[in-house]
Design goal:
- This protein has 444 residues and is an alpha/beta fold.
- The chain has a domain of 107 residues.
- The strands form two sheets. Strands 1, 2, 3, 4, 5, 6, 7, 8, 9, 10 and 13 form an eleven-stranded mixed beta sheet that branches. The chain has a two-stranded antiparallel ribbon with strand order 11-12.
- α1 packs antiparallel against α8.
C-alpha cells in the first residue's frame, strides 16, 4: 500500500505486475479510498492465441503497456489520487502513462469537475531504458484490422482487400454488427475477450467517480498482442483525421473525447512499443469522416449490417438496437452519409426515420454544425466544418434540397463555402503511414 510521510494511506491505485498463463492475461490492481480501505481487482483478457513463441522481452513490454492503459478504468473510481506502478517505469513508460492519464481522462475530469486529475501524480521506481531495437521493418504482408461494426473499419477492410496483403479481422469482445461485418467481408474474425472486474461495477453503483476512459488505448494494445500471437506484422486501425479535434478547452487543456483515437496517441503508442512489435498505424488518418462516408456509400452490401450507434453495444442484449435515431452518433452518420445516398437508401438504414423531420433532433444537429454557443458532443463524431460541408451538399441534393429543416434560416446559415469543401475532402499530410499503406489510403 502506498503511504504518505505520516503513514496515512494515499488515495489512488496501485498497478501490480500482470500475469500471463497460456492465452489468459490477468491484470491486477489495488485501489485505496480516502478512508484507507483497499479494494483489489483482477481484470481478465483472453487472447485468441498464445504468446509462447514471442520474444519474452518484447512480449513483457507490451503486456506492461496494456496493464498501464487498462488501469485507468479502476483508477477513476479512486480519483483524484496517485497512480503508483509497483514494478517501476522506464522513462518512456512514464511518459506513456502520464500522457494517457492526463489526456485520456480529460473528459472524465471535466464531467466530474475534478481538475486535479489533469495533473495526476504517477509514482514508482525509475527503471533504465531498454536497449533500442533495430528501426528497420520488413515490408507489410499481414495486416490485422480491428473491427467495431461501423463504416470506418469497413472502408479499411475494402481498401486493403484490393491489395496483395493478407488481411485478418479482430475485435475485443463481439457484438452482432461486428460479426455481421466479418460475415459480409467473408474474412474470419479473431476475438479477444476482456472482462472488467465486477467489483468495479459495485463501486460505481455505490457512487464512486465514473466516466469516460481511453478505451481505444486498451483495444490497441490487445490488438498488438493478438497480432504478435497470430503472426501479423501490422495492426491497422481506422481512426481518421477528425478524431484529433477536441471538444472543449478547460483549465488550459484541450479535452477530447476521442483522444486515444487521435494522432497524438498514435504517435505516443508507436514511441512506446518495442521495435520488434508489429507496426501500429491508422490507415484512414489522412482522411476526414466525410471523405470516408463518401467511399462507404459505395459499399452497399454493408449498409444493412453496419452501425455506429452505442445502443448496439449495450451490456444487456435486451437494450440493444441497430440505430436509436436519437443520439449524436446517429445524427452524425445521418448527416454525413446523406449527401452520397438517395433519400430512400438513407432512410432504409435508419428504419424509415427521417431524423431531419424530428423537432427533437434539431438542437443535436446544431451542435454537430458548430452553431454559436454550442459545444461539440462528447462522442465519436466529426468536426463542425465537415458537418457544414455535408449540410451544403445536402442542400444541393435533389432528394433533400427542399427539406424544411435544411432551409430553416438558423441551419442554412451554417452551410460551408466551396473553399471549405475542397479542404474537407483533401488528403492530409499529418499521418504515420509507411509509403505502401499511404498509397492505399490515397485511393480511398
Amino acid at each position: 500500500m502506498v503511504t504518505a510521510a505520516n503513514d496515512r494511506p494515499v488515495a489512488g491505485l496501485r498497478c501490480l505486475p500482470p500475469r500471463l498463463v497460456g492465452t489468459k492475461l490477468e491484470l491486477a490492481y489495488a485501489g485505496t479510498d480516502r478512508a484507507g480501505e483497499t479494494t483489489e481487482f483482477t481484470e481478465v483478457v483472453e487472447l485468441p492465441g498464445t504468446l509462447d513463441h514471442v520474444d519474452e522481452t518484447t512480449r513483457d513490454r507490451v503486456l506492461k503497456l496494456l496493464s498501464l492503459a487498462a488501469s485507468l478504468s479502476y483508477f477513476k473510481a479512486f480519483a483524484p489520487g496517485r497512480l503508483h506502478v509497483v514494478e517501476g517505469l522506464t522513462p518512456q513508460e512514464r511518459v506513456f502513462v502520464e500522457e494517457l492519464a492526463r489526456n485520456g481522462l480529460g473528459e472524465f475530469a471535466y464531467v466530474n469537475d475534478l481538475p486535479e486529475v489533469l495533473e495526476t501524480a504517477i509514482t514508482g521506481p525509475d527503471l533504465p531504458a531498454p536497449v533500442a531495437s533495430p528501426a528497420t521493418r520488413p515490408p507489410t504482408r499481414r495486416v490485422l484490422v480491428p473491427v467495431g461494426g461501423g463504416k470506418d473499419s469497413i472502408v479499411t477492410i475494402e481498401a486493403l482487400r484490393a491489395t496483395a496483403y493478407d488481411v485478418g479481422l479482430f475485435s475485443v469482445n463481439s457484438y452482432a454488427p461486428i460479426e455481421a461485418t466479418a460475415a459480409t467481408a467473408g474474412i474470419p474474425l479473431q476475438t479477444a475477450r476482456r472482462r472488467l472486474d465486477p467489483e468495479l461495477f459495485r463501486l460505481n453503483a455505490a457512487g464512486a467517480p465514473n466516466g469516460h476512459v481511453p478505451v481505444t488505448a486498451v483495444n490497441s494494445l490487445v490488438a498488438v498482442l493478438t497480432a504478435m500471437a497470430l503472426g501479423y506484422d501490422t495492426v491497422a486501425f481506422s481512426n481518421e483525421a477528425s478524431s484529433s479535434y477536441g471538444n472543449v478547452t478547460w483549465h488550459g487543456r484541450a479535452v477530447n473525447h476521442q483522444w486515444s483515437k487521435g494522432l497524438g496517441f498514435e504517435r505516443l503508442l508507436r514511441d512506446s512499443l518495442p521495435g520488434a512489435a508489429p507496426e501500429y498505424v491508422s490507415l484512414l488518418r489522412p482522411l476526414t469522416e466525410l471523405r470516408i462516408a463518401r467511399r462507404f456509400a459505395d459499399h452497399h452490401a454493408y449498409h444493412p449490417v453496419f452501425t455506429s450507434c452505442n445502443r448496439a453495444f449495450k451490456l444487456q442484449a435486451s437494450d440493444r438496437t441497430s440505430w436509436c435515431a436519437d443520439c449524436p452518433k446517429c445524427r452524425f452518420v445521418f448527416l454525413c452519409l446523406g449527401p452520397f445516398l438517395t433519400r430512400a437508401d438513407l432512410l432504409a438504414i435508419f428504419g424509415g426515420r427521417d431524423m431531419f423531420a424530428d423537432p427533437a433532433q434539431s438542437a443535436g444537429f446544431l451542435e454537430l454544425l458548430g452553431a454559436e454557443g454550442l459545444q461539440k458532443p462528447f462522442e465519436c463524431v466529426g468536426e463542425p466544418d465537415e458537418c457544414r460541408v455535408a449540410l451544403a451538399l445536402l442542400r444541393e441534393h435533389p432528394d433533400w434540397r427542399d427539406h424544411p429543416f435544411l432551409n430553416a434560416p438558423e441551419v442554412a446559415a451554417l452551410a460551408a463555402s466551396d473553399a471549405d469543401r475542397e479542404r474537407v475532402f483533401a488528403f492530409r499530410d499529418e499521418h504515420l503511414l509507411p509509403p505502401d499503406l499511404e498509397a492505399v489510403a490515397r485511393a480511398v
